[in-house]
Specification:
The chain has 279 residues and is of the alpha+beta class. The chain is built from 9 helices and 6 strands, in the order αββααααβααβαββα. It has 3 domains: 88 residues, no CATH class; 55 residues, no CATH class; 90 residues, Chitinase A, domain 3 (Roll). The protein is extended, with a radius of gyration of 28 Å.
Length: 279
């Protein structure tokens, strides 16, 4: 098997240089740029590969196309080997393929919805700018002195010990009381690109009062040590607000589609799997 696979890889390299000009019943021409063991690679397929790649002006497009063709050929050879090993017949493949197909359809549905949702008006854009000052007129870079740590599984412990702390020394002692040794340091948050609700909480935080800050899989307790104003041009503010307004409109459209589909769908649950009643 290893010998046969190595031979296929070598064949793939040869195919790139020769575009399969011989040795097969089919010959690449017209819309076909290469043929791999009888499977065609079309210009349309190559265009699809290029579609989502941002290409700077200085990039040699011919070399980029050649690189993409090599990549497609290698992928075809790997797919062929996986099929020969029967991986496409396994339950795991079927589950993953179904999920992949569903995610693709959802993305396509979103693209179609984007074509029907109108662009935001200047009035809507200006209203968004006015109602989100921490993203625009009062955008700031907040500098923190902080204690970073991996949170415990039961985060209620944090609320219990940090709830009555009012200084960083108290916060450090509280964390150590539940077996957490945090890493001291500095951090920064740009209110223009963080969650508006969090930005508002930070803006209203009392001076010197410890705040719990999200850091991916970690958390931090910090106090604001400095605030730096971030100026935005009118043009940049307008573009950022337009994107935010449109994203919100697309989200509402998606949620409306789901709500409409749920209202007419027949959904049955195995006993014990029903959703909890709303309170």
């Amino acid at each position: 098997m290893k010998r046969r696979w190595s031979a296929r890889i070598a064949t793939g390299a040869a195919l790139v240089g020769l575009f399969l000009t011989g040795g097969c019943q089919k010959t690449p021409k017209g819309q076909v740029v290469a043929i791999v063991n009888g499977r065609e690679i079309s210009k349309e397929q190559l265009a699809a590969e290029l579609q989502d790649i941002p290409i700077p002006d200085y990039v040699d497009r011919q070399k980029l196309r050649e690189t993409l063709v090599r990549g497609i050929i290698d992928r075809e050879l790997q797919v062929e080997e996986a099929r020969e090993q029967g991986l496409d017949k396994t339950p795991d493949f079927e589950q993953r393929k179904r999920r992949s197909d569903e995610e693709l359809l959802i993305r396509m549905l979103g693209h179609r919805a984007a074509q029907t949702v109108p662009l935001p008006s200047e009035t809507d854009i200006q209203a968004y700018i006015d109602s989100h000052p921490l993203q625009f007129a009062r955008r700031q870079r907040l500098i923190f002195d902080q204690l970073s740590f991996v949170p415990p599984r039961d985060r209620r412990q944090l609320s219990a010990v940090l709830g009555n702390t009012h200084t960083m020394d108290e916060a450090l002692a509280a964390l150590r009381s539940i077996g957490i040794e945090p890493t001291p340091g500095q951090g920064a948050i740009d209110t223009g690109v963080t969650d508006p609700e969090l930005a508002g909480l930070l803006d209203r935080a009392p001076a010197g009062e410890p705040i719990i800050l999200p850091q991916g899989r970690r958390l931090a307790v910090g106090v604001i040590s400095a605030r730096e104003a971030i100026a935005m041009s009118r043009e940049n503010s307008y573009v950022a607000a337009a994107r935010a307004v449109r994203a919100a409109a697309l989200l509402r459209e998606s949620q409306a589609q789901i709500a409409a589909a749920r209202s007419t769908a027949e959904i049955k649950y195995e006993p014990g799997w029903e959703p909890s009643p709303k309170r």
